[in-house]
């Protein structure tokens, strides 16, 4: 979808989704939901969000596949929905690890695509939400450094 090829991405993903649906349970839910996430984002970028079938599939799987749901929210710029979703997960003892991990800083990608940059900015906006970060602080913390960052070069 990046680099102005959204129509091509949509044209490529639609037959793959159709084939995956025809194969039924041979294609796992995570793969199917990820494909529908790509389709939903492409439709959103093309201004065709009224076709909500793929977005509905991703939304229905939000509890089982929260990363796919957050990717959809980032793609569509639904910051308030993302905040609410993360807050609900933080309130659930069995689910709070996802927001704690999702909000951690990550390495900057060297050749970041527009969608990667959009997602990084989306996460940064979530991290700047005082109420969300207060809720995080009750259960853990968001580090102020990237855990998997490379060691500094020696001089």
UniProtKB/TrEMBL annotation:
Q: What is this protein called?
A: Uncharacterized protein
The source's superkingdom equals Bacteria
Instruction: Give the taxonomic lineage as stored in the record.
Output: Bacteria, Pseudomonadati, Pseudomonadota, Alphaproteobacteria, Sphingomonadales
């Amino acid at each position: 979808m990046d680099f102005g090829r959204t129509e091509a991405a949509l044209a490529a993903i639609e037959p793959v989704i159709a084939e995956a649906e025809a194969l039924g349970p041979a294609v796992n839910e995570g793969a199917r939901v990820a494909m529908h996430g790509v389709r939903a984002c492409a439709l959103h970028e093309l201004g065709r969000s009224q076709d909500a079938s793929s977005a509905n599939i991703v939304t229905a799987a939000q509890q089982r596949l929260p990363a796919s749901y957050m990717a959809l929210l980032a793609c569509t710029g639904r910051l308030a929905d993302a905040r609410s979703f993360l807050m609900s997960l933080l309130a659930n003892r069995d689910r709070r690890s996802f927001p704690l991990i999702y909000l951690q800083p990550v390495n900057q990608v060297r050749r970041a695509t527009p969608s990667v940059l959009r997602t990084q900015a989306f996460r940064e906006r979530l991290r700047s939400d005082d109420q969300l970060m207060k809720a995080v602080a009750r259960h853990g913390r968001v580090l102020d450094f990237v855990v998997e960052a490379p060691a500094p070069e020696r001089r």
